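Contributing new records

If you add data, match the layout below exactly. Sequence lines come first and carry their own label; structure lines follow with theirs. Keep one chain per record. Anything else will be rejected by the validation script.
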Amino acid sequence: MLEWIKRQWLLSVLLVVGAALPYLVPNQYYLYVTSLAFIWAIATYGLNLITGYTGQLNLAHAGFFAIGAYTVGILTKEGWTFWPALVVGCLLAMGVGVMVGVISLRLKGHYFSIFTLCVGFIIYLIIEKWDSLTGGAVGLIGIPFPNAVGPITFENNPVNMYYLMLFFLLFSVFVFKRIVHSLVGRTLLAIKNSEELAQTLGISLVRNKVLAFVLSTFFAGLAGGLYSVYIRFLGAQLASISITFDILMYLLVGGVGTVSGPVIGTLLVTWITQYLNTWSEYRMMIFGPLLILLVIYFPKGIAGAFDLWIKRRKETKSKRRMEQAAVENHAEEAR
């Protein structure tokens, strides 16, 4: 049991702290902000998979988030229950991800980012102009709450909604860890480190890049579907590039290419910005320099800096043990 907790420390911390939070905070507004942060953390895991483990910056990530959100919103308003609508939202986001990935992932670097930027803008325009389906500029209003699961109801119940978002965050972390620690994850890292070397080893670049892209859109679609039933209002701005940049900021602060980075970055940035709201128009003047200092002194993010510190400690301890062993051997030979 202790060994499992050491291996799954992030899941253990999230489970314990997350489960206890509703009993520790007196104000339900804190639950609202934290639940929203959980949703954005799920979306950040998707961007982390394609950017942190494959080395491709997808600037259409918010578009896939919006696809999942609008799919769930439209279907539930048409009478579908939440659970099958969520599955369809994820599948539709992944389906569009396959089509976009097959075309875009033949491109590299800036060309790939520019192409996905255009794709994201196209998704935004479709949502904004297709009034009969998406509501256009007005958006979707009054999206139903998720259906009850046995005796557990979610309508006008912020605590149960909080636990629902926590459940899906734990699920996302578990799936993400299984992916990155599998052969697929090691293959993606090989592609990120050197595409030429990976290709000489027989790794199919296009196939694995498309797979990573589609998996990242799954997380985006899942987060979007949860967002729709939590906020219960959707607007076209959900697919804008500013949302992608927000998700990218969460990832940069937490740590690109780390397992715990998306959760740390999202929760930290969300709560800092909420706290700075008391300064009204000055909040971005305060948050901006803080973000710049963080990027300068922690270029690999908070989780990346912590991992580097742990690695250096282990190297220092190992070096000391080797030096001590050498001294003891020298003393033994002298005797």
